[in-house]
Amino acid sequence: MTLDAGICSNGHVSYPTHPLCPECGEPQEETVDLSDRTAEVVTWTHSTATPPGVREPNTLAIVEFDITDLDEASDEFVRALGQVTTDEVETGDTVEPVYVEELRDPEAGIKVPESQDWGGYRWDPV
């Protein structure tokens, strides 16, 4: 599974992808897979009041991927929000995306459990 950010014709990069660029409104016609890159933690928090099926406490972080190596990008970085694999994280830490089969327990008091049966990425400190 990929962790795609969208790139428009003006070089703006956003995560997640959008049909139209949030910055300028142009179509996002290219993507870049962030799953094989590392990122830096910009800020983080511990959530202790989580939705059904989400671990408690749940550590979340906004991370910044350096994309200065992309010729088609005019931006220097793209940010993403996600769960952290551990409670031990600090601003400035380097993390990598790791795919997990289940981000929440689909059986935990949810009316339509199959609607919650999906995986995704968490940030794992390097």
UniProtKB/TrEMBL annotation:
Stretches the record annotates as Disordered: 106-126
Protein name from the UniProt record: Nucleic acid-binding protein
Alphabetized InterPro entries for the sequence: NA-bd_OB-fold, Thioester_dehydratase-like
Source organism, top-level taxon: Archaea
